[in-house]
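Throughout our pipeline, every protein is held as a single compact record rather than as scattered files. Nothing more is needed to write down the fold, since each code stands for a local backbone conformation. For reference, a complete record is included directly beneath this paragraph.
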Amino acid sequence: MARNVSRSAKRFQKALNIELKLFGIERLQALKDKGYLMVANHSSYTDIIVLAALEELVFITSVEMGNNPFLGAITRMGGSLYTDRKNPMSLKEEIRKFSDTIASGFKVVLFPEGTSTDGRDIREFRRSLFQIALNENCPILPVCIKYTHLDGQIITDSSRDNIAWYGDMTFASHFMKLIGHSICAEIRFLDITYHPEEKTRQTLSNSVYTQMRSCYLSSNT
């Protein structure tokens, strides 16, 4: 499923005219043969496309997304893992399942902001799912995704919502606004965290958040 998603994502990337500028790609390549936890910021469904176009990945998404008539079918076909943020009683079993997926050699993607955002900043992370890395003592690869240009022009507050998908936006209406444009996205692979068992969920989360937010706010547009 992850392989099929990656193949499809490459086609969608070209069809949607998304140009990728990659930084620190050697960090991604260093983990090519390992299972690990990838942590990324999240402002649009296009985040999944640009990441899956680069690697065969398994994405953690919400139960609400899985229940969406259209996007839910896509996430199920892609082998996504689901988390129920409204039911803390399910968290322990979810963490076990996600940890087992990495133990099986898969590369799992976590969007710890908990939901997609307007892309102006990176929200504080939810810490609970960082337990996955502690359970498996697997590397954490932070990834900073930033959409910088739309149709060759620097993205501003007036054009940002052509890409960012958040709040009560419907998928169909947003997708119709997205198509027909050219998009430039910077993908920055940041410092890998090895031996996470030496830290706590809080220190892991804070460390990755600080690194990612600093990158997001300082990267040139």
Remarks:
- The chain has one domain: 2-215.
- The chain is about 40% helix and 20% strand.
- The mean pLDDT is 91.
